[in-house]
Input
Amino acid sequence: MTCTEFLAQMTDYFDGQVEPELLSEIQSHLCECHHCEILVDTTRQTIRVYKNHQVYDLTEEVRERTVQRILAACTGRKSISAPDQR
Output
């Protein structure tokens, strides 16, 4: 299984809607692919936070940096200007 094939099945995987044979392939892929393993772990954590309605207070600086990085990623810019971090 490739990463692209895994991504195509990820929603069904989280919903428990994959056939046993495919589940075995997915689990094998996750054992071999650190990137997809991190993606699954991060997604699980995000779901857990969402379900628990945990709210995290961010400083204005962190909030602004986060927004700028998201915008940069969406527009394809390679770098963003960041405040002086000394």
Summary: Residues 39 and 62 are 23 Å apart (CA to CA). The two ends are 45 Å apart (CA to CA).
